[in-house]
Specification:
Mean pLDDT of chain C: 95
CATH topology of the largest domain in chain A: Peroxisomal Thiolase, Chain A, domain 1
CATH architecture of one domain in chain C: 3-Layer(aba) Sandwich
Shape of chain A: globular
Low-confidence stretches of chain A: none
Strand content of chain C: 15-25%
CATH superfamily of the largest domain in chain A: Thiolase/Chalcone synthase
Distance between the termini of chain A: 21 Å
Largest sheet of chain A: 10 strands, mixed
Oligomer: heterotrimer
Structural class of chain A: alpha/beta
Order of helices and strands of chain A: EHEHHEHEHHHHEEEHEHEHEHEE
Number of strands of chain A: 12
Largest interface: A-C, 60 and 63 residues
Number of domains of chain A: 3
CATH architecture of the largest domain in chain A: 3-Layer(aba) Sandwich
Shape of chain C: globular
Chains: A alpha/beta, B mainly beta, C alpha/beta
Order of helices and strands of chain C: EHEHEHEHHHHEEEHEHHEHHHHEE
Chain lengths: ~350, ~180, ~375
């Protein structure tokens, strides 16, 4: 199978309210930077374009249609869209390249969550007959999951606080982070609980922003003369929607996806995990069997800023950045969707020749 | 003791439940539309020009959709326009007082290169045609808001038709300009 | 080069205004089970599931695939959700095909659906936006002016749309799954029907339907062993262009022309009218048949209507290139599924499995979908032979 590599990645700052910008205005600057990084001009210069977004974030149907206005899609381009995180847009793009219908692809994800009440909005992605009418918000579901973990003695509140502390400290080196600072676990534990047992700091912030990536066959990346990082594996897996039928203290689907993506074929220097809640980072780290040898969420992860529909792609982009900078040779990125880590995607990234 | 009888035997067939969804959003139009709305509140129709291909977009949405670059330069447009095409609608718009049959038209204001949808009125519906000249009929100034509805509708002008190949290409001074 | 892939199973629901007897999950599962039965397979034979539907606001469920995984036997497998507006059913089929054509999977299930009766679709499409006038005149209000421009350019007689409306409903009467069953429809009846958006009459418009369509797509090895004849995927193409830009030809969009040229090239088609045996094309308003006949290269510019009027696209008139033998979108329109139904019906034709609306001896067929402001296009060509 064709080897595919990442050659460019950019994201906006993660901000609590992007203000008076619409979809096009949110996307265009980050696309421009991404094209520049790859030495390209527009979507005309890649073989395929795929985006990820969710209409309900900003409350308008066909949000992605406006996104096309940012691409320079005249003459018409090969383009598609997933109503998912853009990490899955990357997945779709890889299939297109593997089948030989493109040598390169632009992937972007965008989300403007600030116009609505995100946790409430997400309650409407639950079973429409049994769960959605109860308006169970996404934070409450995660709180129940954390409660199970605590009650079974699988974690302590201090473990959670340590995740938060490390995220904020790591985020101090991330110019795009929304939340960062030299905060100790004690500082976190001193906070009052928000939705018991979660403190506000245990929950990712609501953010506006976008990210974009360009991938290409290794041949194409070499022809462009760009440093590249090889995507050596990518896989994803969904679990039952019925929370009562899942072991919420584990993430079986993450493990399956990681195994299928070939994570265990080598050492994992860095892992960027899409854990919107502190305890979920622990679940994911354990499900993947990561130890001290792996740097987990050196960017601060999504606890430092969560670009809905782009955060999964951003995790991959963060690992790309580490490898390009020479801080790591091999890493994994994880993306999630659905309540309590229902659907998970794992990407394995490896240093290319001239990265 | 367990009941032998199946509980569902006694129940009505359920074909639906009511689960209304209420979600509140603070909608923002975007930076380019906000500039447009600020002008239309003053009774001025503006477009934005693409720095690359020079096309003028109205209402501006922030980019030249063709080139994929931001439109910056603001252009004041005429409130005279040309009918690019239209339809006579015979069904009411929910919540709108306008009564059918009414005309929805794609109109291109002089000085712009793309059309937007608006109402035509003060006309004989059957006489409207592609290339027809029209002009905006504004609400009273006191009612102007940050809204396209400041233009109540467009009405026919007693001017020569615009040849089809020139629709969307007129300068702000119109056909004779 | 893409790996060979083929449709080995097709399942649809009956299309109707309201399916009150099933939930959303029940609806998609019905189509999926029918597709598995048609392929003589079980859930365990499926490696991944690809779901498509139009805006989530149609049902009021955000990313419904998250909840539908249980009904679609997808737990433990990859699930992908596509959304490309009205073309989504077609795009979803293409994304599903790419799972196999890329060599990544052996056999996948794809499902598209819409259960518009669950919500208020008119509302979903018409959130007021401050910079445009609030004219919720429906999709017809958007497309009617474009049709008017086509009529001006082509000088087509007023009754071309009426003829298509009759033709597709007569086709639909041959298809027991079609929503509208109008075996006795006449030109006069269509002409006398209410003028909604001049020049579009009520009977020249598509209905609003509940329904789902599913397909199983397999690789060459498995398709060769399939119990029923496979429909080999001979070409796949997608194109997008912005909704509005200066100089855009809305009547004859370049994205449609480019998409067709791409898919024909892959399938070795040089003369679509001659080389193809039939086509399932997204025609939600009757006038779009002559418009797409030109856009897709079946007729020279300005002459699509002549094919329609000559009966070339009619099964009942023995036309040489029947379009929408299933009744098309004019007979059934579960929006998110409508594109996939076109793709599936094209496959049924080349499998020789289209029942009373079979085109005799069909070997090569086109499936077509479009969406947004006629700006997103998805197409495939399927054949009874591999090449």
């Amino acid at each position: 199978m064709k080897q595919i590599a990442i050659v460019a990645y950019q994201q906006t700052d993660s901000v609590s309210d992007a203000g008076a910008v619409n979809e096009v205005e949110l996307i265009m600057p980050v696309l421009a930077r991404t094209f520049k990084q790859a030495g390209l001009k527009s979507a005309q210069d890649v073989g395929f374009t795929c985006s990820g977004s969710c209409d309900y974030l900003q409350g308008a149907a066909f949000a992605f249609v406006a996104g096309v206005d940012a691409l320079g899609a005249v003459p018409p381009i090969k383009e598609s869209h997933v109503e998912m995180d853009a990490a899955w847009a990357l997945y779709e793009s890889m299939l297109k390249i593997r089948m030989g219908h493109a040598d390169s692809a632009l992937i972007y994800g965008f989300g403007k969550s600030s116009p609505g009440e995100l946790p409430i909005v997400l309650s409407q992605q639950l079973d429409p007959y049994y769960l959605a009418p109860l308006w169970v918000d996404s934070i409450s579901l995660a709180a129940m999951q954390a409660r199970i973990m605590l009650d079974r003695g699988l974690i302590t509140e201090r473990d959670m606080a340590e995740v938060v502390s490390r995220s904020r400290r790591n985020a101090m080196n991330n110019p795009h982070a929304q939340l960062s600072g030299d905060i100790s676990p004690e500082d976190v534990l001193a906070e009052e609980t928000y939705l018991s047992p979660l403190r506000k700091a245990d929950c990712c912030p609501v953010s506006d922003g976008a990210s974009a990536m360009i991938i290409a066959t290794v041949e194409q990346a070499k022809a462009w003369g760009l440093p590249y990082v090889i995507i050596s594996g990518i896989d994803h897996c969904i679990e039952t929607h019925n929370l009562g039928m899942r072991d919420l203290t584990d993430s079986v689907s993450t493990r399956i996806a990681a195994n299928r993506a070939g994570m265990n074929a080598g050492k994992v220097d860095v892992a960027e995990l899409y854990a919107p809640f502190s305890h979920q980072e622990i679940i994911l780290t354990r499900a993947l069997g990561l130890d001290e040898g792996t740097s987990v969420n050196p960017s601060g992860g999504v606890l430092a800023g969560n670009l809905m529909m782009a955060s999964g792609l951003s995790r991959i982009g963060e690992v790309f950045n580490r490898i390009v900078k020479g801080e790591a040779r091999r890493g994994i990125a994880h993306a999630t969707s659905g309540p309590c880590l229902q659907h998970n995607l794992v990407t394995v990234l490896e240093q290319g020749e001239n990265a | 003791m367990s009941q032998e009888k199946n509980m569902s035997d006694d129940q009505d067939v359920i074909t639906g439940i009511k689960a209304p969804v209420y979600l509140k959003y603070n909608f923002t139009a975007g930076a380019a539309p906000a500039r447009f709305l600020a002008q239309i509140k003053k009774g001025v129709l503006t477009g934005q020009r693409c720095p690359k291909c020079s096309a003028v977009y109205v209402p501006p949405r922030g980019s030249c959709a063709s080139c994929g670059v931001a439109t910056e330069e603001e252009v004041v447009l005429s409130d005279k326009a040309t009918v690019q095409s239209f339809t006579i609608v015979s069904i009411p718009i929910p919540g709108n007082p306008i009564q059918p049959p009414y005309i929805i038209a794609n109109v291109v204001p002089d000085g712009a290169n793309i059309s937007f949808i608006h109402l035509l009125s003060e006309c004989v519906n059957e006489e409207i045609h592609i290339g027809q000249r029209v002009q905006a009929v504004w609400k009273p100034e006191a009612e102007w808001d940050y809204a396209m509805d400041n233009i109540r509708y467009f009405k026919p002008l007693d001017e020569a038709d615009v040849p089809v190949d020139r629709i969307g290409k007129l300068p702000v001074t119109g056909l004779e300009g | 080069m893409a790996n060979l892939a083929a449709v080995v199973g097709i399942g649809q629901t009956k299309y109707t205004t309201k399916r009150t007897d099933v939930s959303i999950a029940g609806l998609v599962r019905e189509a999926a089970v029918n597709a598995l039965k048609d392929a003589d397979l079980t859930w365990n034979d499926i490696d991944a599931v690809i779901v498509g539907k139009a805006p989530d606001m149609f049902e009021g469920v955000i990313m419904p695939e998250i909840y539908l995984t249980d009904a679609l036997g997808c737990n433990g497998k990859p699930m992908l959700r596509v959304h490309t507006a009205g073309s989504v059913g077609g795009s979803t089929a293409l994304v599903a095909a790419s799972h196999v054509q890329s060599g990544t999977f052996k056999r996948v299930l794809t499902v598209s659906f819409e259960k518009q009766s669950e919500s208020n679709a008119m509302w979903a499409l018409s959130n007021p936006q401050p910079f445009s006038t609030h004219l919720n005149a429906g999709a017809g209000g958007y497309f009617a002016p474009i049709i008017r421009e086509y009529m001006r350019r082509s000088k087509a007689p007023y009754n071309v749309g009426i003829k298509v409306a009759v033709k597709d409903r007569l086709h639909g009467a041959r298809n027991p799954l079609a929503h509208l069953q109008k075996p006795d429809i006449t030109m006069q009846e269509v002409e006398d029907s209410f003028m909604l958006w001049d020049p579009i009459r009520f009977l020249e418009s598509c209905p609003s339907s509940d329904g789902a369509c599913a397909m199983v797509i397999a690789n060459e090895e498995l398709a060769t062993k399939a119990p029923k004849p496979p429909a080999w995927i001979r070409g796949v193409a997608m194109r997008s262009e912005p909704t509005m830009y200066a100089g855009r030809d809305e009547v004859n969009p370049q994205a449609g022309r480019d998409c067709a040229a791409d898919v024909y090239k892959q399938a070795g088609i040089t003369n679509p009218r001659k080389d193809l045996d039939c086509a399932e094309v997204y025609v939600p308003f009757s006038w779009y048949e002559p418009m797409w006949l030109e856009n897709l290269g079946f007729a020279p510019k300005g002459e699509g209507w002549k094919l329609t009027m000559a009966g070339a696209t009619s099964l009942d008139e023995g036309g040489d290139i029947p379009w929408n033998c299933s009744g098309g979108v004019l007979s059934s329109n579960p929006i998110g599924a409508s594109g996939m139904i076109r793709f599936a019906e094209a496959a049924r034709q080349v499998r020789g499995d289209a029942g009373a609306h079979q085109v005799e001896g069909a070997k090569l067929a086109l499936g077509h979908a479009y969406g947004g402001g006629a700006q997103f296009f998805a197409m495939w060509v399927v054949g009874s032979q591999k090449s």
